[in-house]
Please model this.
Amino acid sequence: MRSFLVISTVLAVLAYAGACWFLHARQRQMIYYGWTTTADAAGTDFELKRPDAVLRGWTVNSGKPAPILYFGGNAERIEANREAFARLFPDHSVYLVAYRGYGASGGEPSEAALVADALAVFDEVQRRHPREGVDVIGRSLGSGIASQVAGQRPVERLALITPFDSMVATAQSHYRIFPASWLLTERYESTKALRAYRRPVLIVHGGRDDIVPEANTLRLIAALPAKPRVVRIAAADHNDISLHAEFDAALSGFMSR
Model:
């Protein structure tokens, strides 16, 4: 009996270690779902060449001032926002650029690559709009990228939709038996990125979000150095939040200069 217990314990430890290894090794495949957003490059009207990839996307209200740069959610077809954004932001040029490995953009996604790309896209938008402030919107995964940009570039105003404090903390809330802080290299530490950001911030989150737990959003809000504008849509979940009237009102009002 004792030997059986020892063998069972060893097998359980090995199984746990194997599961940890699998999560660590496959984390990028589990995080990034760019394959669900594939688009034809011929349908895009924005292109930015990077050293190892070409980023492509779409512009809305091209030629307008007051640019807005949008970073979408994981598995989000960002081009589907064009009609809504043209209506919400009639006085702004809006740039929707697919992450590498998403849409019609080449390359393989990783946090380091996506953040570097995002900074390059910001610089390109700023080049196209000299002497104009650039606003940034980030949704879900894009909130982590937008936060990194705001921490390293002069973002005029920052809107975060269904945001998290960090991907590590969010993952830990879903996989409680695994040491997420040890396993994840894709970390997206938004609270650290925004610790010195004092320009206007809007947070829009849902009361029924089961992907980014409300506790993670509240920790981000509490960590910001300046009090943000917070819109909590009680009936919204992570994916349907943009279907609520409060969502449109919050974004259009915040971006009105």
